[in-house]
Amino acid sequence: MAAAQDSDPDISGAPVGRRVILGLFAAGVAGVLGGATVQKGLSAVLGPIGNRDPTGLVGLIPVGDSFRFYSVTDSVPHRDAGNYRLDVTGLVGATRGYTLEELRAMPQTTLVRDFQCVTGWRVPEVRWSGVLLADLLDAAGVRDEARAVRFTSFDGEYTESLTLEQARRDDVLVALEMIDGPVTHDHGGPVRLYVAPMYGYKSLKWLSGIEVTAKVIPGYWEQNGYAVDGWVGRSNGRDDDPTG
Ligand SMILES: Nc1nc2c(c(=O)[nH]1)N[C@H]1C(S)=C(S)[C@@H](COP(=O)(O)O)O[C@H]1N2
Ligand SMILES: [Mo]
Description:
It contains seven helices and ten strands. The two termini are 24 Å apart. A hairpin with a 5-residue loop joins β3 and β4 (122-132). 22% of the residues lie in helices and 24% in strands. The protein is of the alpha+beta class and 244 residues long. It has two domains: 1-70, no CATH class; 86-224, Oxidoreductase, molybdopterin-binding domain (Sulfite Oxidase, Chain A, domain 2, Alpha-Beta Complex), CATH 3.90.420.10. The chain has a five-stranded mixed sheet. The chain binds ligand MTE and molybdenum atom. The site of molybdenum atom has 6 residues, from loops. It comes from Nocardia aurea. InterPro entries: OxRdtase_Mopterin-bd_dom (IPR000572), OxRdtase_Mopterin-bd_sf (IPR036374). This is Molybdopterin-dependent oxidoreductase.
């Protein structure tokens, strides 16, 4: 959990103080302006997945069909074609590292899907493009005893997981593009995971490691009670709540 947010009792504590009320106002402004800077303020209020909304009021504020920018860390180093690297390790025939150029040179898959955070916000019909995770697993050669995949981020904190079966789906991408161009830094670029059938928390940002494992190792939010199998509509979500 982000140190700055945790150390702020007004935000992490239960009482709804003045700062939270101010935050509600900022949230409304974010919906109108949609700017990255204002939205960072919004996510500071909401918390990475809205768990600092003790009243539930924040979830009722109409903020439109726009993305929030989430990070559990205060800052994340920037990486680009010059220094980006994705390592595929663990229970594979051959460990291998990819540069951004190498990922771009592989066959690309494009999907247009809604993006849904478990807290209730949803962005309709987002375009995603990138390398099928299955292709990277095949290239590495998954060993017989492998059952799952663990993902790590170069933010140094966030982790995620999938079963091998989930990881091999044709709607799970190592995404290089999102919306209308390359995945921006704030959205987890240059490379993030995109797990189309599951809630947003499965789509790890700033992807740097894919480790093939013998069993599922629950990810960052899963250690805090969110479903490991984060299927949209089937696990601890609010997407059937029209106000959510
Ligand atoms: N590294 C990292 N990945 C992350 C998160 C995060 O805080 N850090 N938040 C997750 C959650 S809860 C959601 S809803 C999406 C949000 O993606 P966005 O910031 O591009 O809107 O990223 C997911 N991936
Ligand atoms: Mo989320």
